[in-house]
Each structure stands twice: as C-alpha cells, then as structure tokens.
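An instance noted here:
***
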Amino acid sequence: MGAFSKRKLQEYVNERGLLEGYLDLDTQITPNGIDLTLASVERFTTPGAIDFSNEQRVISAGEDMPFDADGWVFLPCGCYRIVYNEVVKIPSDAIAIARTRSSLLRCGATIETGVWDAGYRGRSSSMLSVENEHGIRLQKDARVLQLIFFDLDTETEHYAGAYQNENVD
C-alpha cells in the first residue's frame, strides 16, 4: 500500500473523477495529496448521540457562521463543523486519510476526520477545533485540509453508510 503521487492524483482527477468542485487544481494538488477548501462553518447547537448499531445515532445540529462582506469569519475558541467545496469520489481500490494543513495548526486550530473509505462519494464535513484562546479568522475557500490517498492491495466493497453522497447537489 503506497500513497498516491502528484502524477497519479492528476490522472485520477482527470480520468476517474476523483475530485469535483475544486477551485484551482494546480494549486490544490500537492506533491503528496489534495488540499480541500472551506465552503462553510457551523457552530454546534445540540448534543449528538452515538450507539453501537447506529439505530439511535443523532448527529448534532448546527447553525451557520456567515462570512462577512470580505469573505472572512472569526471563530472564537471552540468546536465547529466545517464543510468543504470539493466532492470526493474514493475509488474502490483506495482509501484516504486527512491531515490538517500545517499553517492552520500554527494558528492554533486543527481538523479531525474519520477515514475516507473506499467507494465513498460526497462533500464531507469535519470537526474544526479552535484551541487558540484568541480565536482564528478564516477566509471562504481557504485551503484547510490535505487528503492523502493510499492504494489498497485489492478492490473492496464500496462504502454504503449514511454519509454516502452527503452534501452533493
């Protein structure tokens, strides 16, 4: 299992539809991954609930944190849900792992995600944690996360969970 190279990422975007809704592919494809960009931010407004079978799962509701006239949003220290501009389509012979971009970390914020399973397609959301006691300013479309893709040794069954095709228009 190896990570996708820049060349392989470009090939998968162009020939297999790995990424849709990107802003600037030349900027977003890095030597080791693809940068995802910020579409929206919500603050959590209700508790969530997680059980073993997902029969009683409740995803926390959120309230939009609007960008100002110049396209910026100020986020005080706290926990937020973010949604990306890009729709990702993971091939059945790959998975992806996401990492916070180092510039965001250096500002005192981090993004947490789950594994991006083989066969998943969607405009995902993640948890943004602002730890800096002074908060952070983020501009709409900022590059905040890097997705790193890995080959699986064989194709596997496609992701078929509740988040398949999430936030896809």
Notes: The mean pLDDT is 94. The radius of gyration is 16 Å.
